[in-house]
Specification:
The protein is mainly α. It is built from 10 helices and 6 strands. Mean pLDDT is 81; it is low at 1-10 and 163-176.
């Protein structure tokens, strides 16, 4: 009877967290970025139409000229600072990005700093104004981490907040060799319910991106089984090895 491990392929970027856990995030593609941009532009078109209607209402009061100037200034300020304000105060997301379930993240896996948000916002001049958007499109299409020029300078990129592949939908593949040797024989002490809990933690992590779930589960397993994670292996790799060892051991015993 063959053993099985969880297997999934995604377009990802690997980042290292403060707990030294290497985690793969699903990178947002060019199509998702463009769709988010169209949603944001749609909002500004609606605001413009609302402004035109409002100015028309003011025309009857004799204050249409002043009202038009005020609205024009407000509209211009909103248009210029929209992305910067949204990303700083709404976890790296504009309305369009939230709708497309993508957000800005630092390449080291942390929340971008205000300085990083400011840099990627300033380079919108290069990405969209000076190159009419062509610079941004070419850069996103050509770079490994799907970064526009502003992202490259700020060391940021966009990730999907909901992974394309959920753990509940991944395929199961047989181990490459039947001669596989479990790294942690102590895993045989675990029960099916223990493994279900580990799978639940992994699944919750893919939904929330909360790497503390992985860190805490790995520590509980280490303490329960009185084992140490080998040097060079992080907590995420440890949990996947646990799954691999358990599947092999239970299949062998069966």
């Amino acid at each position: 009877m063959k053993s099985y491990i969880i297997f999934a392929i995604m377009n990802t970027i690997e980042v290292s967290t403060t707990q030294n856990i290497d985690i793969e995030y699903d990178v947002a593609g060019l199509g998702e970025r463009i769709a988010a941009w169209f949603i944001d532009m749609g909002i500004f078109i609606l605001l413009y139409l609302a402004g035109v209607i409002f100015v028309g209402i003011l025309a009857g009061t004799g204050a249409s000229e002043v009202g038009f100037v005020v609205l024009l200034v407000i509209y211009a300020l909103l248009y210029v600072f929209y992305d910067l304000v949204c990303e700083v105060f709404f976890n790296g997301q504009s309305v369009g990005k939230r709708a497309m379930k993508i957000r800005v993240i630092s390449l080291d896996g942390t929340q971008p700093t205000i300085g990083q948000y400011l840099l990627r916002w300033l380079f919108r001049i290069v990405d969209f104004v000076l190159t009419s958007g062509v610079g941004a499109i070419i850069s996103v299409a050509a770079t490994k981490n799907k970064q526009r020029i502003g992202d490259i300078v700020a060391h940021t990129t966009l990730i999907k907040t909901t992974p394309r592949t959920q753990l509940s939908a991944v395929a199961f593949r047989p181990l490459v060799s039947d001669d596989y040797q479990p790294l942690f024989p102590e895993i045989g002490q675990l029960s099916d319910r223990d493994m279900e809990l580990i799978h639940e933690v992994l699944q919750n992590f893919t939904k929330s991106g909360n790497n503390l779930l992985i860190y805490n589960m790995a520590n509980k397993l280490k303490n329960h089984l009185k084992i140490q994670i080998p040097q060079g292996m992080n907590e995420m790799q440890f949990l996947h090895t646990v799954v691999k060892d358990y599947n092999f051991i239970t299949a062998r015993d069966a």
